[in-house]
Amino acid sequence: MKKILITGYAGQIGTELTMFLVNKYGSENIFGTDLKEPDEKLLKICSFKKLDVTNKDEVFAFVDTNKINTIYHMAAILSATGENNPALAWDVNMNGLYNILEVSREYKCSVFIPSSIAAFGPETPRNDTPQDTIQRPTSMYGVTKVAGELLADYYFKRYGVDARGVRYPGIISHETLPGGGTTDYAVEIFYEAIKKKKYTCFLEENTVLDMMYMPDAIKATVDLMEADPKTLEHRNAFNITAIPVSPKGLADAIKKIIPEFTINYDIDPVKQAIANSWPSHMDDTIARKEWGWSPSFDLDTMVKEMLEKLEIKLS
Questions:
Q1: CA-CA distance, 175 to 187, in Å (whole number)?
Q2: How far apart are CA 144 and CA 213, in angstroms?
Q3: Are 92 and 145 in contact (CB under 8 A)?
Q4: Which of 139, 144, 169, 259 could form a cystine bridge with 210, CB 3.0-4.6 A?
Q5: Using an 8 Å Cβ cutoff, are 139 and 272 in contact?
Q6: On the CB side of 120, how many CA atoms lie within 13 Å of its CA?
Q7: What domains lie within the chain, and their CATH numbers?
Q8: Which residue among 141, 155, 168, 185 is the active-site one?
């Protein structure tokens, strides 16, 4: 039976990933860790312990004590937060990852290591960004993601560690608020549409970026981890995408359901510069070919469900 450790389990993706894995494998087999206290909903569904991934001794002791054999390493400092504190981003994203890979090597764990569209930079082709292409990111978060991709590949080739991962686009979720990313607007806009019928966006209206609804992100994560390794030529840093959209495009989709909704713009130059360096649409052909990736939600179906779920939540 799998014994699964989820780091960063109180974060945006970690929260829903934990709930999915508990339903699939049983609460007794899921161990959630984070530095911040999770909400009551998470505390009720599986074991929780505060864990600092940058502390190697803590990581090794936890894996040993709980007989962990699978790790979903979701703990990270995101793009906008990382620009405010680059040293912290490097420490958590790189030293934390190194500890996770080392414990995976020692205890023969399979490990999921998320990357991001932030791994690309201004020299990367913006449209239909290839799986294998130039990567010269301009943010500390992006730098750590490229280094993390290379480190994961190294540990597989050098030590045989079963390390796998995807490059997430922006993630849209009604469960947990995002934590300091450049695509946070794509979640905030739904809350403001319901509460105030208006939203002020920090990116320019025609800034197209890849987005994905959380159920598809969770599906991609688990499907990759359970894929037959014989089909995986890349194993790590797969492009995945679902919904390339701009703030204006997202607002227009919301207006179909809330006609009185309005959007205006107050551009954050740091976040805009980061967004301008990212792809507008990644080519995910390799993920579709090697492990059958395919999203279930498009823009309109995602917007409809987001508004329905948040109406209930906010009431």
A1: 10
A2: 24
A3: no
A4: 169
A5: no
A6: 32
A7: 4-169+213-239 (3.40.50.720), 170-211+243-281+296-314 (3.90.25)
A8: 141
For residue 176, name the pLDDT band (cuts at 50, 70, 90).
confident
Distance CA 262, CA 5 (A): 42
> What is the C-alpha separation between 250 and 265, in angstroms, rounded?
14
The DSSP line for 81-135 is HHHH-HHHHHIIIIIHHHHHHHHHHHHT-EEE--EEGGG--TTS-SEEE-SS---
Length reported for the chain? 315
- CB 148 within 8 Å of CB 90: no
Whether 1 shows a pLDDT value over 90: the answer reads: no
Both structure tokens of 249: 């495009």
Statement: residue 179 has pLDDT above 80: no
Structure token digits, residue 69: 């054999």
* pTM, entire model: 0.94
Clarify whether 168 is annotated catalytic.
no
Phi and psi angles of residue 167, each rounded to the nearest 5 degrees, phi first: -95, 100
Contact indicator for 7, 75 with CB cutoff of 8 Å: yes
Other residues' Cβ atoms within 10 Å of the Cβ of residue 102: 16
Task: For tokens 């993390």, name the residue.
Answer: 148
Name residue 116's beta-bridge partners.
Answer: 168
